[in-house]
Amino acid sequence: MRGLDYIQSKQIYWAKRNGLKLFGSQGNKGLPIYTVTLKKNLFEPLTKTSRGQFEAGDGGEINDSAKIPAKMRALHSSSAIAVNIFQYWNTINKVYQIAHSCGLCSKENQTAEKVKFEQKFIISKAFPFSPNIDVVIENNAKGQYEIFAIECKFSEAYGSYGHKGIDPKYIDLQIWDDIPNIFDFAKSISPTDNDFKHLHPAQLIKHILGLKNKYGKRAFRLLYLWYDVHGEESYIHRKEIERFSEIVKKDGIKFSSISYQKLISNLAKDYYDGNEKYFNYITDRYL
After folding, report:
1. For 90-103, how does the pLDDT look when each residue is reduced to its tens digit (9 = 90+)?
2. What is the pTM of this model?
């Protein structure tokens, strides 16, 4: 089974087990994989702060249009899984616990204080738009890093739409001096990326550029959070992550990766007691 089919089927059967009605992208047309309301697709409703952050993003994640439902209403939405996994720890003021489970800091480190969604970091004023980073964990002044940035992928890595390389406009910017290995790699996937099938390195490079422009090389960590599937697609995806990691680490960029399944396992091992409702939801849905 293809990775995309596996993820969609798993989510559809989760919805059926829980008595949720589903619709296609155009009502009765298309795969029935959208919930009736946004709330039905979330463990807990969006907080006022989280909603404001998504409203300020560019992805049309939470608002229905005249023709199609909001992206976050899709069972396989990467923003929905990000909210379901991360927002809870903001709500209970224990962000440092999920930061530790992500492998971003030690268990004793409690400097991680706040989760934000859809944050933008300017690469250059030459561009009218800046890419959105799915999740950002902000640390207090005692932290070694100012932020942990997290790029979240659910089904996207296994779709058939492909992805773009680096626009040559980025190659011409004067921002590459201290990251020569990433620069050489960026040129190799500009304007077209014919090498990576499941990982989208151009997107990760743009995140690195924006974060570096804001914080410098030493004050951030970038995490790639992805959903694991069975078979060859998963194997290739892992190898691509390893290749990218080797390149960026040569330039001193703190980059790591973890699967959602491993993250959930880490969380449950250390923090299940007292958080049973949350864990029962995310393990039933995503493991």
Report:
1. 999 999 999 999 99
2. 0.96
